[in-house]
């Protein structure tokens, strides 16, 4: 199905689907697939990522960046916290989701050997990241690949070094250092929030979720002095390859599940990690959330 863009459209579409009496979704695998921006420290244009964590990074206070203390790199501050690097004191429940890591690794094994699409424009744009200090953007200069990488959700289509670095820190803060911001998209925490509520009503199985994103653009320019060009998601040469790679990789996942349905997937892939939200709504105890130790 097409959920529509933005958090609210995605949540409402999934809620409508899962509440319909026309479908029995208790053995359904939910495969989220779409384009995304990518952190040049983690990957490159055309790459396909599979997430374990999804974090809503814009669920924060926002102060005008022209009016913030000189020590802050961003105007985003966790709710109830005194500064950008402080853990939020107010929790809504959709800040962090963790999904089935064993399922993620299994479906990624189906994608071995997939030839990914690329473009001359993407190759040229990647090369601009080669001169970054300390080679911090080495991953951006590589050919597209299939990688593990966590996803950030935000209604705001953000772009720029300071914003992206701020959200990198928010990501590690919200996951207690366990998640690492790789891609940015608009819908994933909303989809997971709707599916979690459906799981609480025994209408879906929350362990049957896969999140795959293909990188259409970078989340920041190659230089802090470079002026961004609009539209961002189609101007880096990765948009068309990302769309193609969603299919090339996604079809392998679908065919792999169908091929092994009876012996593996019909009964479900038992997770070996916590799955659910920051509140532990489905049972179990998340290793992130209020009172948990922040890893270095």
List the helices and strands and how they pair.
Layout: H1 7-19, E1 30-38, E2 48-50, E3 53-56, E4 60-62, E5 76-78, E6 96-98, H2 101-109, H3 120-127, E7 146-148, E8 150-153, H4 161-174, E9 181-185, H5 188-200, E10 209-218, H6 239-259, H7 261-265, E11 276-277
Helix pairs in contact: 1-5
SSE arrangement, N to C: HEEEEEEHHEEHEHEHHE
The count of β-strands is 11
Which blocks of ≥5 consecutive residues have pLDDT under 50?
A: none
Number of helices: 7
Which structural class do the helices and strands define?
A: alpha/beta
Percent helix among the residues? 25-40%
Largest sheet: 9 strands, mixed
Mean pLDDT: 95
Side-by-side strand order of the widest sheet: 7-2-10-1-9-8-3-6-11
Principal-axes geometry comes out as globular
What's the gyration radius in Å? 19 Å
**Share of residues in strands:** 15-25%
Separation of termini? 40 Å
Plain-language structure description:
It is a single chain. With 296 residues, this protein is of the alpha/beta class. It is 28% helix and 17% strand. The protein is built from seven helices and eleven strands. The protein has helices spanning 7-19, 101-109, 120-127, 161-174, 188-200, 239-259, 261-265; strands at residues 30-38, 48-50, 53-56, 60-62, 76-78, 96-98, 146-148, 150-153, 181-185, 209-218, 276-277. The strands form two sheets. A nine-stranded mixed β-sheet has the order 7-2-10-1-9-8-3-6-11, sandwiched between helices. The protein has a two-stranded antiparallel sheet with strand order 4-5. Strand 8 (150-153), helix 4 (161-174) and strand 9 (181-185) form a beta-alpha-beta unit. The longest helix has 21 residues, at 239-259.
């Amino acid at each position: 199905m097409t959920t529509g863009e933005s958090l609210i459209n995605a949540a409402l579409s999934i809620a409508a689907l899962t509440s319909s009496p026309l479908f029995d979704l208790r053995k359904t695998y939910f495969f989220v697939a779409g384009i995304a921006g990518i952190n040049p420290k983690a990957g490159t244009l055309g790459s396909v990522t599979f997430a374990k964590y999804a974090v809503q990074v814009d669920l924060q206070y926002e102060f005008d960046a022209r009016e913030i203390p000189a020590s802050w790199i961003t105007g985003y501050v966790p709710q109830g916290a005194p500064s950008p690097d402080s853990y939020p004191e107010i929790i809504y429940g959709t800040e962090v989701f963790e999904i089935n890591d064993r399922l993620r690794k299994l479906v990624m094994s189906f994608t071995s050997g997939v030839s990914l699409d690329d473009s001359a424009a993407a190759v040229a744009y990647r090369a601009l990241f080669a001169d970054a200090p300390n080679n911090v953007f080495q991953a951006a200069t590589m050919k597209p690949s299939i990688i593990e990488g966590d996803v950030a959700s935000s209604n705001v289509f953000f772009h720029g070094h300071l914003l992206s670095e701020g959200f990198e820190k928010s990501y590690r803060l919200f996951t207690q250092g366990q998640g690492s911001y790789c891609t940015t998209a608009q819908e994933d925490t909303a989809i997971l929030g709707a599916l979690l509520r459906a799981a609480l009503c025994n209408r879906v199985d929350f362990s049957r979720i896969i999140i795959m994103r293909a990188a259409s653009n970078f989340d920041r320019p190659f230089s802090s002095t470079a002026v961004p060009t609009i539209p961002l998601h189609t101007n880096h040469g990765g948009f068309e390859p990302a769309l193609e790679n969603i299919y090339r990789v996604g079809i392998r996942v679908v065919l792999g599940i169908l091929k092994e349905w009876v012996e593996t997937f019909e009964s479900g892939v038992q997770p070996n990690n916590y799955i659910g939200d920051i509140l532990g709504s489905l049972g179990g105890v998340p290793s992130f959330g209020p009172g948990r130790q922040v890893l270095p």
